[in-house]
Design a protein that fits this description.
This protein has 5 helices and no strands. With about 180 residues, the chain is an all-alpha fold.
Length: about 180
């Protein structure tokens, strides 16, 4: 029983019990699923990537997406989301393969800032695209000459990518805030 006793401050040491010797040393709390370097985090990254790729490819497949600034903004935002999610999915795969924890405060700060920026850009572009889609479909009644179904599908996929990015951001932010 080689335990340290308080020597500077007169604080009473907890009493020894017979069961305490059998439990061994304390270990750090396990990583919560959804945080970087966990299978749940990898799943969220892959969902972000897939939804962003689908949104990007559907929007870019229309010939007239560049006629509205909101649609161009959506293509740029989900393009950035694709790149970010793909790179961090690779980092997650590496961390899982070598069994390395990604709880370093600088790494978590980098992930938090990146997730916050990309989720904000994706959400703003999806909202702007949804507004233009509603304008074209309902107010102008020009769905017959435009690709309204494709615009709606790309916008919905951008929202789904944002839904997958938000838990990543919140988990990283929580890990950053709870770090001592």
């Amino acid at each position: 029983m080689n335990m340290s006793r308080p020597s500077v401050h007169p604080v009473e040491a907890p009493p020894f019990t017979e069961g305490a010797a059998n439990h061994g040393p304390r270990v750090r709390m396990k990583d919560v699923q959804g945080m970087p370097g966990t299978p749940g985090g990898l799943g969220l990254r892959l969902c972000q990537f897939v939804f962003a790729v689908v949104s990007l490819s559907v929007m870019a497949s229309t010939s007239d997406f560049a006629t509205a600034t909101a649609f161009t903004y959506l293509v740029a935002a989900v393009g950035l989301q694709c790149l970010w999610s793909f790179l961090l999915a690779i980092v997650d795969i590496y961390a899982l393969l070598v069994r390395r924890s990604l709880r370093n405060p600088r790494v978590v700060s980098f992930f938090t800032i990146g997730d916050g920026l990309t989720s904000t850009l994706t959400f703003a572009s999806a909202c702007a695209s949804a507004g233009i889609t509603v304008l074209i479909a309902n107010d102008l009644n020009k769905c017959a000459i435009n690709h309204c179904a494709r615009f709606e599908a790309a916008t919905a996929m951008a929202f789904m990518s944002w839904f997958a990015t938000s838990p990543s951001f919140l988990m990283n932010f929580w890990a950053l805030a709870s770090h001592r």
